Amino acid sequence: MSQAQPQSICILRLSAIGDVIHANAMASELKRQYPNCQLTWIIGKVEYQLMKHCQGIEFIVFDKGQGWRAYKQLAKDLKGRRFDLLLHMQLALRATIASTLIKAKRRIGFDKARVKEGQQLVTNETIQAQQHAHVADGFMAFLAAIEQRSDVLPATGWDIPVPEADKRAAQALLKADKPYFAICAAASKAERNWTTEGYAAIADLAISKGYQVVLCGSPAEPERNLAKSIQAHSNNHFDDLVGKTTLPQLLHLLGQVDVVMAPDTGPLHMAVSQGTAAIGLYAHSNPLRTGPYRFRELTVSVYEQCIAQQTGQQWQALRFGKRAKGEHLMEQISIESVSQAFEKAHQLVATKQKTATIETNE
């Protein structure tokens, strides 16, 4: 029997950028199915900068950098509040602790196979068990759990508005009258970055195909240095936009370019949310779980061989999501394999342009 439609829902998903992008796909569908429901999202400080312009969602910022004071502020923000539903969508101890401050009758968490960090102690319902599910599909299962349905919808829409001023600022950075290839080279941990020689080689390949290449990223010094190193290894000059965009501006920029290449990092999933062909580079995490959701065929992965080398087992025999460890795993990704993925992306772009031309002429 279907549950009564909720009047108030609290989403608990603090970080990171890629996961918040996937959670927003669920939130977008949630708004469509329950347009009269009050939706509150407890979110991290950095992630809020990307999502804050979303309509129909009240955001409460949890700044983990404040330590215990973040919990004190959350308690203050939630004082006197009670929700029909809590969607506990983060498997982290800090999220488990934060959830104790959220009053809700129904508290939905992950299934037994995925639950950890004490989440099972603060929830009273679970989502449907899924085998080898992508993060986005795992989040969409929360939507099905609200009405206790077994069917899980695919993630089809990401509603992330960008203010017009940010759109103009991003557009001003793209001046060439040619297709664009963006490289977001840096992940949150340096060991997840591909080689500078590899990035430079694919940049040169893209330029030979008529693309203008841009490097994107945050203003952090390691990212700036990585961009300089990639340029130094290239036979061509390209635009270094590292540190020159805010998160909303970067989101719009990644929606305007034609192809994006990145390791498992937030900008890769930002590009996917905008429908841009995304080449994902993977060694430490299983791309079936965290790969570019709409462009899985463009993924280049050595995860399978890395995890087999480290455990002596195939990944299917292990806990889904188990990471491979090591500082040099990404070096096993060959330039040839990424070149092949780029050629596939190039064909997607050509097909898209041909279709657009036909539609314009009709």
TrEMBL record:
Gene3D superfamilies: Glycogen Phosphorylase B. GO terms for molecular function: ADP-heptose-lipopolysaccharide heptosyltransferase activity. The keyword Ribonucleoprotein does not apply. Keywords: Glycosyltransferase, Transferase. It comes from the Bacteria. GO terms for cellular component: cytosol. This is Glycosyl transferase. The keyword Glycosyltransferase applies. PANTHER family: LIPOPOLYSACCHARIDE CORE HEPTOSYLTRANSFERASE OPSX, TETRAACYLDISACCHARIDE 4'-KINASE-RELATED. InterPro entries: Glyco_trans_9, LPS_LOS_Heptosyltrfase. It comes from Paraferrimonas haliotis. GO terms for biological process: lipopolysaccharide core region biosynthetic process.
